[in-house]
């Protein structure tokens, strides 16, 4: 038998004990991390995961919520909604409303950001313009809807200035364009503020080098400004596509989806199925379809963010 010295025994105890203590410390840190995250996880579970699962379940049933006998019908509700002409009308209006709004948000936001970033404008005028241009972003949707309904009324300020009596929100030809314009006015400050921050983060050395190489202002914009802002622009566009495609309050409080469904979008279509026709099964089906469309955009946004990181 080989005898070990006391020093050797102490060394062996320390060496063999380190992994166990390190493992305990790691488990303690992990438990603490999940303990801090647990309130958020519980809220997400109660307020998002469980409702989504319930809505998916309702979409597979007949007479969901209000009926006593909930019959499982599989995909029949999806077939019914997808063959409903009103659903495709709402989808078409949503696409037009969203694409035009996002494109205008980008153009206006970038234009105002470039103007406010210009050194030719003094400090005081620049501060005044920033306050004025960001003002629409400070209003709530309810205030915006009431404000524009008053301005666009037949006896409102807009018709008085134009010397007309146009029914802007009641005309089948003008209603969709009118609410799109209101949404553009309300949403461009988000792009303006974000792009202005991005412009101020572009190194001046890039512009100086481009100027030395003989680049014109237009060439500097396309070859320096736009490439530097591209990650921000892509993120803003994807986020705005998700938000605008789900716009409900502004449309509901201005036109309610009318007249004759010309401003009906997917959010108002789903709302009417649930709370006007009390067909919660098809309303849940429409909500699930909207969720799937939004998830496609969300996947692109997450992939872009990972690639950017």
From TrEMBL:
Membrane among keywords: yes
InterPro entries found in the cross-reference section: MetI-like, MetI-like_sf
Residue span(s) of domain ABC transmembrane type-1: 91-301
Keyword match Cell membrane: yes
Spans through the membrane: 34-60, 95-116, 128-148, 168-191, 283-302
Topology of this chain in the membrane: Multi-pass membrane protein
Keywords for the protein's UniProt record, in alphabetical order: Cell membrane, Membrane, Transmembrane, Transmembrane helix, Transport
UniProt-annotated location(s): Cell membrane
Major location category of this protein: membrane
Name of one Pfam family that matches: BPD_transp_1
CDD domains according to UniProt: TM_PBP2
PROSITE patterns with a match to the protein in the record: ABC_TM1
Membership in a protein family: Belongs to the binding-protein-dependent transport system permease family.
Identification of the protein by name: Sugar ABC transporter permease
Species per Swiss-Prot/TrEMBL record: Microbacterium flavum
Organism lineage: Bacteria, Bacillati, Actinomycetota, Actinomycetes, Micrococcales
């Amino acid at each position: 038998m080989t005898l070990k010295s006391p020093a050797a025994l102490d060394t062996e105890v320390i060496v063999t004990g380190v992994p166990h203590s390190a493992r305990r410390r790691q488990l303690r840190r992990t438990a603490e991390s999940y303990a801090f995250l647990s309130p958020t996880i519980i809220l997400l579970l109660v307020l998002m995961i469980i409702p989504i699962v319930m809505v998916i379940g309702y979409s597979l049933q007949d007479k969901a919520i209000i009926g006593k006998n909930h019959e499982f019908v599989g995909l029949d509700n999806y077939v019914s909604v997808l063959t409903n002409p009103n659903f495709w009308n709402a989808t078409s209006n949503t696409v037009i409303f969203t694409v035009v709004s996002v494109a205008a948000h980008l153009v206006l936001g970038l234009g105002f950001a470039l103007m406010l970033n210009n050194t030719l404008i003094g400090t005081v005028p620049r501060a005044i313009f920033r306050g004025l241009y960001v003002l629409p972003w400070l209003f709530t949707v309810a205030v915006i809807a009431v404000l524009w309904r008053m301005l666009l009324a037949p006896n409102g300020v807009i018709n008085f200035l134009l010397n007309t009596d146009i029914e802007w929100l009641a005309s089948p030809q003008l209603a969709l364009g009118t609410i799109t314009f209101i949404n553009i006015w309300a949403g461009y400050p988000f792009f303006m503020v974000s792009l202005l921050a991005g412009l101020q983060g572009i190194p001046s050395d890039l512009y100086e080098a481009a100027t030395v190489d003989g680049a014109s202002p237009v060439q500097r914009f396309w070859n320096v400004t736009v490439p530097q802002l591209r990650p921000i622009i892509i993120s803003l566009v994807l986020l705005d596509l998700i938000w605008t495609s789900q716009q409900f309050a502004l449309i509901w409080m201005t036109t309610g989806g009318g007249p004759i469904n010309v401003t009906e979008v997917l959010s108002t279509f789903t709302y009417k199925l649930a709370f006007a026709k009390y067909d919660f099964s098809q309303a849940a089906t429409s909500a699930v379809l909207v969720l799937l469309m939004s998830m496609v955009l969300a996947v692109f946004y997450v992939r872009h963010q990972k690639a950017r990181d």
